[in-house]
Amino acid sequence: MAIKKQYLKSKPVCKVTFSVPAEEAKSVAVVGTFNEWNTEATELKKLKNGTFKGTVDLAKDASYEFRYLIDGTYANDDQADSYAFNAYAGEENCVITL
Predict the structure, then answer these.
(1) Which one, of 51, 16, 22, lies nearest residue 34 by Cα?
(2) Structure pTM?
């Protein structure tokens, strides 16, 4: 899994690209505080090489919690900036800091 950050000079925005290698998966989405944990808001597109990829514009100078939803199962990114325990789910969420 990979996270790429591209800061824009003209706006207080960072383009964040999420990449998830999941050849066998049918669907992958990224859910988090930036899309109110909506499982359908940020679906990633499957590329020919089997990687799912998508870009989200996020306000910089902020932190966001997120997880991947791979065929209905939640997964964390090992390249997240940090992790935060979520008492509701009883698991850790990934944190990205911009």
Answers:
(1) 16
(2) 0.93
